[in-house]
Amino acid sequence: xxxxxxxxxxxxxxxxxxxxxxxxxxxxxxxxxxxxxxxxxxxxxxxxxxxxxxxxxxxxxxxxxxxxxxxxxxxxxxxxxxxxxxxxxxxxxxxxxxxxxxxxxxxxxxxxxxxxxxxxxxxxxxxxxxxxxxxxxxxxxxxxxxxxxxxxxxxxxxxxxxxxx
Length: 165
Description:
Layout: E1 18-20, E2 23-29, H1 31-34, E3 39-46, E4 52-56, E5 60-67, E6 69-74, E7 77-82, E8 86-89, E9 95-99, E10 103-111, H2 115-122, E11 124-125, H3 140-149, E12 152-158
Antiparallel strand pairs: 1-2, 1-11, 2-3, 3-10, 4-12, 5-8, 5-10, 6-7, 6-9
InterPro entries: Cupin_2, QDO-like, RmlC-like_jellyroll, RmlC_Cupin_sf
Protein name: Cupin domain-containing protein
Pfam families: Cupin_2
C-alpha cells in the first residue's frame, strides 16, 4: 500500500533539468509526493525526436502538449496533438511519438507513479536548461534494463511504429 500524499507538500521551486536521449526533461511530481498515485514530468524535444517503440505494463500514460506538435502512434491509430490537446496511451498498448514541429513541449502524467524512477535512472543531470547537444550516444541495453524495472517493455528502436509489430 502506498503512503498517503504529503498533505503540506511545498511546490518545487525549480525541478532539476535532465537530459534523456535527445530531450530535456523535468520531473515535477513524483510518487513520493503523490503517495504513489501518479507522476508528472515535462519534456522538451526537437523536430524528428522519437523514442523507442514501447509498452507500459503497469501504468497509463497521458500526454498534454503545451507548445508545438507531437504525433502519437498508439497501436494502429495516429493522434496529432497541438497546444492544449491531450491523449491517453493506455496500459498494454504499444506506442511511441514523433515531434513534428521545430520544437515541442509537453507534460506526461503516469498513473500510478513509477515512470519518474525510469527517468531518474536513465537521464543525466543537464548542466543547463536546454536541449542536449545533437549526436549524444546512449546505451540501448541500459535503457531497456531500466525500463523493464518499471514495467516498460522496449519493442523496437526509434523509428519503429506499432503497426510494424
